[in-house]
Design a protein that fits this description.
This protein has 492 residues and is mainly alpha-helical. It has three domains: 116 residues; 183 residues, no CATH class; 127 residues, no CATH class. The strands form two sheets. The protein has a two-stranded antiparallel sheet with strand order 1-2. It has a two-stranded antiparallel ribbon with strand order 3-4. Strand 1 and strand 2 form a beta hairpin. Helix 11 packs across helix 12. The chain starts with 8 loop residues before the first helix and ends in a 41-residue tail after the last helix.
Length: 492
């Protein structure tokens, strides 16, 4: 360009060896609009050249740029005699350079506005379902198919639009999405949506629909949710190979979920966990791994693969989040209850259970069935209100259990004295079937079966119903006689 000087050898050396390079976005814009090399050099010498955002922010608007830029970058004709000037000799050259610089500034400003809007939208709108379009989903499915020997993921194993969008947004930000399995909805799963209003990056409200999460209904449904989480995460991982923090392999996912269904967790021989407990421990596992990667406190855990390897052998985690609940007294009762259902809905998963004797120490009171009440609540005097007509009497027992012959309150349902239970017991079973411990059969406790008044430790049977059915057979159910659903038929 005539009249505009070229760079001197000293300026060329300074530009290449001393000055920081122009920001790539700014450099491309200047090359696109043919800004003169000497003006680029003067922009590079300022603090604004190495950062596009600083270059944009130095001017309030185009008018401010027209006022300050010619003098700041030395292409104004007023100071053309000053040393190191750009060499623009007339106003036409100055106006031409100013137009080019205005185009550069507008291009950079548009780029920065778009960048800020994307960041604000990603940070404040993680669950905007409309951001994951059909084209993006097809790309994720194609990459997954390529990574798995041309075997495409079944639609029922992929996430719903809302869940996949959240997973993708977190993965792009190098974060593991630690959501509950309630949110891992499948693509073919039936779910509801609700209308909500949310602010966008500029603070304006917009209306969108959001998926309503819900818990898995049974064990099979929960396993399907786990498969949806695994497939959706792998789609994002395969597509973002440059995001090192979220990288792991399909083999690691298989190991993790195989552990959850292994004999020492889901199929424990004693006190098997319920569906709710397994759902909770899987949620806690993902929360634990996400926290490890976010905080960075463990130097050995830098990727998702490291976190998954570590949690597979973390015995403390599995004890604190699963075993401590499975082995609690409440869970022990539920595991032994004859009415307990297993994870597939089948009844009879437990064994008949003998309630603890009165006065036995319990760290945690068990949950009792609807037809069975804890005996320590009914053998007291206050409990007599629910026992029907009768009276209390004092009985002295100088046996082994009461060496000092202290008086004890006992309940007699007929009100005719302590021996009236013999009449009420007529026709009932006297002893249980022979066992190894009781070759002649164990004597049945009358006090317990008639009115739950046994104080405990009587060495008699409490868990075999002695009533006679209408067909002449014995009931032998795991309940006291006075709560027998078939009643007592002594005449048969």
């Amino acid at each position: 360009m005539p009249g505009i000087r070229a760079l001197t050898p000293a300026e060329t050396k300074e530009q290449k060896e001393t000055l920081p390079a122009l920001d790539e976005i700014l450099q491309n814009a200047m090359n696109m609009f043919n800004v003169s090399p000497i003006t680029q050099f003067h922009v590079q010498k300022t603090a604004y050249g190495s950062n596009t955002q600083l270059f944009v922010e130095q001017f309030n608007d185009v008018s401010d740029l027209c006022t300050k830029a010619p003098k700041r970058y030395k292409f104004d004709t007023v100071n053309k005699a000053v040393a190191h000037h750009g060499g623009h000799q007339d106003e036409e050259q100055e106006d031409e350079e100013l137009v080019k610089l205005k185009c550069v500034w507008k291009t950079c400003k548009q780029h920065m506005d778009n960048h800020v809007h994307v960041i604000a939208t990603a940070a404040g709108d993680d669950d905007r379902t409309s951001s994951m379009g059909t084209h993006d989903r097809n790309n994720l499915e194609a990459i997954y198919k390529k990574k798995n020997e041309n075997i495409a993921a079944p639609l029922k194993e992929t996430g719903s639009p809302g869940y996949m969008t959240k997973e993708w947004t977190h993965a792009c930000n190098a974060r593991v999405y630690p959501c509950s399995s309630d949110e891992t909805l499948g693509y073919l799963e039936t779910f509801q949506k609700k209308k909500i209003r949310k602010p966008d990056g500029a603070g304006h409200l917009y209306e969108t629909s959001e998926e309503v999460p819900f818990a898995a209904t049974d064990w099979t449904h929960l396993q399907a949710r786990w498969l949806v989480r695994q497939t959706t995460k792998l789609m994002c991982i395969y597509s973002l190979t440059n995001v090192k923090k979220i990288q792991t392999t399909k083999t690691r996912f298989v190991q993790f979920y195989k552990l959850l269904t292994a004999p020492n967790i889901a199929e424990r021989p004693v006190n098997k966990p319920t569906t709710e407990q397994l759902r909770n421990v899987e949620n806690k596992a993902w929360e634990h791994m996400a926290n490890q990667l976010t905080t960075g406190e463990d130097e050995d855990v830098t990727t998702l693969d490291d976190a998954m390897k570590q949690i597979l052998v973390n015995a403390n985690f599995w004890h604190n989040n699963l075993y401590v609940y499975c082995d609690s007294p409440t869970a022990a009762y539920q595991a032994a209850s004859p009415d307990r259902k297993d994870r597939f809905g089948n009844k009879g998963a437990g064994k008949p259970w003998n309630p603890p004797p009165v006065g036995a120490p319990w760290k945690q009171q068990p949950q009792w069935g609807a037809k069975q009440q804890p005996s320590w609540n009914t053998w007291t005097k206050a409990g007599a209100k629910n026992q029907g007509t009768g009276n209390w009497y004092n009985a002295k027992d100088k046996g082994k259990g009461n060496p000092k012959g202290k008086q004890q309150l006992q309940w007699n349902p007929t009100g005719k004295g302590p021996d009236a239970s013999k009449t009420a017991w007529a026709g009932r079973l006297e002893t249980t079937d022979p066992t190894a411990n009781y070759p002649s059969g164990q004597q049945v406790c009358r006090l317990h079966h008639l009115h739950t008044a046994c104080p405990g430790k009587c060495s008699r049977s409490h868990n075999i119903c002695p009533n006679k059915k209408a067909d002449g057979t014995w009931c032998k159910g795991p309940h006291p006689a006075f709560r027998c659903p078939t009643g007592h038929n002594p005449g048969h």
